[in-house]
Design brief:
Helix content is 46%, strand content 14%. It has seven helices and eight strands.
Length: 235
Amino acid sequence: MIETPVYDLTVFKLHFGKLTLKAYTKGEHVLRFEAITHNTGELRTGRVLDRFCDIVTALAGMLDRFLTVCDSVHASFADDHTPGQLPQPARLGATRLGGIDINRPRARAALSAALSLASRPAGFTAADFTAKIQVITGDTGYTARQAAYDMRKLRAKHLINRQGCSRRYQTPPDAVRTIAGILLLRDQVLIPCLAAIRDPALAPPPASPSPADQHYAALRTQMRALLHNCGLAAA
């Protein structure tokens, strides 16, 4: 949820049941983050006054994980081996599983779901993963059985981990960084640039281009020249 209660103030909120993460600017140079509990029972630390320190520690951990996820997304990274390794088969225990082909919509949806659920304070369940995939794809026919298979493939690639012996999962920071890097490169760099190379007049340039628009324009020009020199044509 994003709120703009007053001029030049944006409040960003993430709700997890009766827990809330809040981020907003405080003054010109300060960005403030808060963790809020509307019912301490949600933290599973106890509700009596003697457990106040445990409650504060749980809220601090919740905030620390959220900031770690934000930092991982901001500094996303995919090395040159990752795109080639993801489609390769892998093992989870004694089970051999197929790879993750990011050219398939279902695989991209699974990666996006793991990224979206990364900031959940207590991790996520298979039901949460199924519901998130349905929201991302709009496919209400996506089943829990399909989700279980996709999650096993993500676990085999160490992109999600099971929390101990529970039925809850989490996306570790390194995996957040990798997933964000892969999706960003594909969806915000390669696809837009190739689309513009294929049809340079697809859309008129903006009247007041942002720095990102200027970088896109320069990158498209250079990629068009590179593909021409390599004897390739974008189709």
